[in-house]
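Forum: Protein Structure Q&A
Topic: Joint prediction for protein chains with partners

I've read a bunch of threads here and the consensus seems to be that you should model interacting components together rather than docking separate models afterwards. I'd like to see that in practice. Below is the full input, 825 residues plus whatever partners are listed. Could one of the regulars post the assembled result?
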Amino acid sequence: MDSGGSEVILSIKDVCKSFPGVKALDKVSIDVKRAMVHGIVGENGAGKSTLMKILSGVYEKDSGTVVFDGQQIEHTTPQQSMQRGLAIIYQELNLVNTMSVGENVLLGRFREMKGMRGTHAKARELLDRIGSKIGTTRLVSELSVSEKQMVEIAKALSFESKLIIMDEPSSSLTAEEMCELVKIIQQLKDQGISIIYISHKLDEIFEFCDNVSVMRDGRVIDTKPKSEFTRNELIMQMVGREIENEYPERPQRVGEVLMEVRSINTRKLHDVSFSLHKGEILGFVGLVGAGRTEIVRALFGADRVRGHQVLIEGKPTPILNPRDAIGAGFGFIPEDRKLQGLVLPFSVESNISMASFRKFTRLGFLRKSIEKEIGTRQVKALSVKTPSTKVPVVNLSGGNQQKCIVGRWLEISPSILIMDEPTKGIDVGAKYEIYMLMKDIAERGGAIILISSELPEVLNMSNRVLTVFEGRITGEFDPKVTSADKIMSAALGFDGECS
Amino acid sequence: MTVQGTNSAIRVGASILRDYLVLVMIAALVALTALIEPKFLSPENLTNIMFQFGPLMMVALGTTFVIIGGFIDLSIAGTINLVAVVTISLIQPMGQVPALLTGLATGTVCGALNSVLILSSGALTQAEALFMTFGLSTVYSAIALLYSHGSTMHFWDITASKSIFQAIGSGSLGFLSWSFVIFLISLAALWVFQEMTAEGRAVRLTGGNKTAARLAGVRISRSIVVIYAIGGFMAALGAIVLFSRVTTASPVIGVGYETNAILAVVVGGTTLKGGKGSVLRTVMGVLLVVLMSNCLNLLGVSTYLQVVAEGAILTFAIWLDNRKHM
Ligand SMILES: Nc1ncnc2c1ncn2[C@@H]1O[C@H](COP(=O)(O)OP(=O)(O)OP(=O)(O)O)[C@@H](O)[C@H]1O
Ligand SMILES: [Mg+2]
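Posted by a regular:
Agreed with the consensus. Here's the joint model:
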């Protein structure tokens, strides 16, 4: 390989990897250049995360070669690759919550740093390098997701990393936090560090990646400089077909009031009241921590909240726990799929069927053939990529896991579906399918409450938007006629229309 | 490609071996002991083993569900103490069938009481359950002591009929001992519960991820009551089999059963992390534990060393369990 002007830091050649029943990677070759941001895009289950886990040493490749910084890499472990200068930041961050920021940045090297003072001094220096002001003595458990990511990046820098892999870093960041990350990525680049950036958000890819590789079905379809791709071409290559619009039209037939919620009050929420109409998609817009999730959790009975009133079709409906809520026609897609959504070691099928016990039990006994039908039906409806409905859901790619949770609720055809970050980690094609399903629920007389940190998603899908700021509803807007700026300023605490 | 083939063959082999490690160890233990001490395979010793594993088996089968549900129960020892003295003392005044039923009910109530306290305090972690049930074990034992005035009660003090208990203790049906028949029936019932019922599935989901299960509408509180009630019921059954065999009931008769039951469950391969496991695995675990102690006895190893061995095996089994789920 010529080491000309644009030197190659990482060269992946013909790498293959199979799992039982799946060929996850099929002769994958990618070159990553020094001081460049290399974007990788592809459908859910295309093999992106698997490739990264091979690079970091979590998985062993079946065949092929990997050359990093002029050195051929075989049988590596995550520890060794870290030391070699290859760091990876997983979507599920890997920090010790009960320790301070400084201790996390220099985890396991307390002695080298000559004690606590040295640790904090070094951590400060590393955080300064990325322009972060997080106090090194703060506990990690108190940090926001983006701050945690900064800590991860500082940790990567502490190993003098030459390449930092970020696997869907933005899926839980707000727009402002994202700007911060972009700045840091730029700084890292200036310091000569290469970055592999995986994301389903094409805007980001076009904003700051230099080169882009598209993966599909375990293969690399194309690698080109970003400037040579158009957005449509990229989508086309990812999903193998043309997608004209990223969002379908909003539901058309908004009817009478389906549910009324009166004065939810908790330590965090103040007098939250709103109504929901039949056939409507209602969006909540706000910063992370504004209380959007708390509102829907209180409504669904997930948290112990008393004193508010819920009226469904005019009838007072007490909801004390999730089971009551489901009985009253609710469905709930929680924001954290690993902790709140899935039972990871369990099969795809039992994860999907979890909310529809009633359908496949008789006299207290399970009818497994019906359970299997349920699993198969939803796997097909959502095109979940899995070798069978019996495999543990933990083996699925991130986006496909999310689809299983969506399928769980579609199966019970809820009349009110609460979706908290429903498209987190889902590819462009599958997003569209989920939007269509949302629209379908609404048009059959149901309603949807949508929370998303992706503003375009809320604005393009909702019939009505409520802004939430510090536990209060600060405004109500029709996103069809209101500018995004105006809605955002209400969500940031400036005066809205109603209040 | 052939390298890859053998590689994966080795991997599959290793995982099968790990799954059946207990069976392999049981076979090895039997072979080894029989070689050193031919008496081991004598009919008397085999009958002895059959009687010996009865009580522990009952207790461990019940504990399996508590562990699959993601919890733990240390109150078993106390429950056994209480059930034993209560049941034996009631044979005379009430007659044997009511005494038997009262005993079983006492165990079930003790078990359910654990869960009620756990639920009402909101203690939903295994560690919290550990301390709480440990506390309750002391309470149940103290009640047993108060009730019996600290003395051991004997079968032969009883003039009323006690034929059921005698049968359980030493009678047999054909070539099977009654306690073995009770074991088979319990095993079948619990296996059906585990594999085929909705509640069995709910228990598993609760153990797998409480938060997710609750948000999907699974009644996790009910599952928690059910697992502890089953644990208590099976402990009571174990207590009855135990005192019927030894023909006495002291208020400390159950000491050590809780740890041995957990030992058997974990050695059998049910994970302490919850969600996974099976009563069939527990059967193997109990066999291993009982065979080992029988074998060590035959070899004349001191009781102290036996305790050391048990502790070491429990630690090793938990270590292995953790490695597997890393
Ligand atoms: N540990 C595993 N065991 C079995 N199959 C696996 C395992 N990990 C990944 N797979 C399979 O490999 C394929 C690629 O998965 P991978 O996680 O790399 O996808 P991805 O491109 O990262 O998708 P996403 O965008 O959804 O995160 C999927 O079909 C997945 O089911
Ligand atoms: Mg992935």
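The interface with chain A takes residues 4, 196-202, 204-205, 208-209, 211-219, 275-276 of chain B (CB under 8 Å).
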